[in-house]
């Protein structure tokens, strides 16, 4: 039986608060708009149904009477902090909205990207470019682009980051040295598409629906051009869309349209590597800050610590499981689950996320843990 986060009377209210790893385990009910926690152990709870309700009513008389004041207050405080982070993440400008701020790319680019970029050969055919990145200027989540050599020696870049001289040299030394595919892996990871497209004008640009329109509205940022997209994934075409013979020979892909950021997830079959952007973080971002001088590294703010707790895969990974369940997948749980199950069907061993540490060797194991509730088929 999966362990769903709990003691929450209303998952909708809970999702707005993105609460937390402090509430113990248990199961949500859908009865009232009231946030409650208790100390009842999961073993005393009835089975959880796919519709998010108890198959039988929870044991009477134990909902609050056993809860002490201290954990309740701690939970409320933590929930408020989590809600602050979550609200900013979920409702930030640019996510499915038309609010494109002027010169937004300036805030996303390190002043000295070549000095702080870590270039790593994850496998013989997969190279990552990792850089520091502060979300909202406060939360160190890092950024990562991925370069892949296809079987025909052409190259594909995913979630491109700055094309620094060092990155350019690494591209030139891999395969044909020519990038044939530039992939914006969601509606956020597109800032450097134009920089790579100018260097490789024959490359196909690939992205999710909504991104071409979003970029077209940006008229005051030289970094963001208006290059046409060759392939655009939509909810309607996702099951039939093909990129081309060479790409499709090496990759499986899934458009997670149920995710708020419209995620594109790719599986590079020859090296068993999963490439994704925001579907799953793996904080803290150690590699991405490894070349930043100690004195310049961000120190943990409350906001940063809360966000990290919600995006760590360590241990039982309760925070990230709840974040994905109650926040990221709440809009279309069935569609999200279907995408997760398809991805789980791929035989990957390594996960390359855009934020946080790359997971080498035990990627499938971590994936199954983080998405346990989705794979169990609950809605
Ligand atoms: Fe991201």
From TrEMBL:
Keyword Transport: no
Key words, A-Z: Membrane, Transmembrane, Transmembrane helix
InterPro entries, A to Z: DUF4336, RibonucZ/Hydroxyglut_hydro
Keyword field contains Transmembrane: yes
Pfam name, any one: DUF4336
Region of interest called Disordered, as start-end residue ranges on this chain: 40-66
Residues passing through the membrane, by range: 72-91
Protein name: Beta-lactamase-like protein
Organism ancestry: Eukaryota, Fungi, Dikarya, Ascomycota, Pezizomycotina
